[in-house]
Amino acid sequence: MGRITFSVINMKKFRLGEELYIKLNARGKALSKFENLKAFIEQNNEEIPLEILGAMDNKWSDYFFDSTNPKAFDVRYFHFLHYANAFFALAEKTKDKIEDLLDRNLIIDDRYKYVRKKTNLSVLDKMMDVFGVLKDLQDGHDLKDLLESLKALNPVFKGPDFFKDNFFEKDKQGNTTDKKEELTGKEICYFFALLFVFAKHPFVLDKPPKAEYKRPQLDQKLQEELQDYFRVVHHLVENFYFQLSKIPGFFNLLDFVSGVFNSEHRAKGITRNQ
To answer: Which domain of life is it from (predicted)?
Structure first.
């Protein structure tokens, strides 16, 4: 009988924590890119409140899960965090090249530090609050008046199911197949335009008790301003010659354009339907 040998892995080299490798060994396959990124965000990060960590495991996960295409979960969730990280990096005037930040094969290390920050995760959590409510309401209520203009003006916003149609498509037999593995330059800028709304003008949800169900709605003036904003964004994006190296400059343009909302609507956002 041959000798049995064991290999010892230096966990500090990988910087992902021993618990991940215990989990990997238990199920017999490597962790996905999403699982590695989420673990990196959470690891030794006392800055993140427990409620946001819980939201990432529950509210955010519920939003990205699609029972008709379970494999889409990791893909949608990973790209949401990946492109959001690039957005926050540009907002903080990073010295990293945009081509590196947008690279889906970017090593999960300190370059993902921007989605480890409480303030940035709070922006994404507010985004999930709003999109989650819209998704739930759409399942049984008519929201065309609220969604159609945004769907027409922002191709990344296909309705509340964020990133649902960006990476997958149906073949002739109705089966779901992979479409692509990354967003185009235009789609990235549409996503950034959407993130600017939540970063600058946090939406406030006022959800009544279930026993007194009333549909949350967008303040009418804010809704009009959102439509005007995305009309401008649509015109700029569709008439811009995209190279990845040009995205930081376009980011600054979106930063300027997104300043159109006034302080009143920054506080209002989604309000209870009286």
So the answer is: Bacteria
Residue type, 226: L
User: How far is it between the farthest Cα atoms of the chain?
Assistant: 79
Residue in this structure with the two tokens 């009544």, named with its chain if needed: 208
Please state, in angstroms and rounded to a whole number, the distance separating the CA atoms of residues 158 and 142.
16
Q: Give CA–CA dist 99/84, Å, rounded.
A: 14
Angle of the 247-257 helix axis to the 72-91 helix axis, nearest 10: 80
Cα 237 from Cα 183, distance rounded (Å): 14
Q: What is the DSSP letter of 172?
A: T
Tens digits of residue pLDDT in 71-113: 778 888 998 999 999 999 999 998 889 999 999 888 899 999 9
Question: Angle at Cα 50 formed by Cα 45 and Cα 56, nearest 5°?
Answer: 85
Give the residue from 182, 192, 133 showing the smallest Cα distance to 157: 192
Entry pTM: 0.76
How many degrees, rounded to 5, is the angle at CA 259 between CA 95 and CA 197? 80
Q: How many CA atoms lie within 13 A of 79 on its CB side?
A: 22
CA distance 98 to 88: 12
Quote the tokens at residue 68: 């008709």
The amino acid occupying position 190 is Y
Using CA atoms, how far apart are residues 253 and 241, in angstroms rounded to an integer? 14
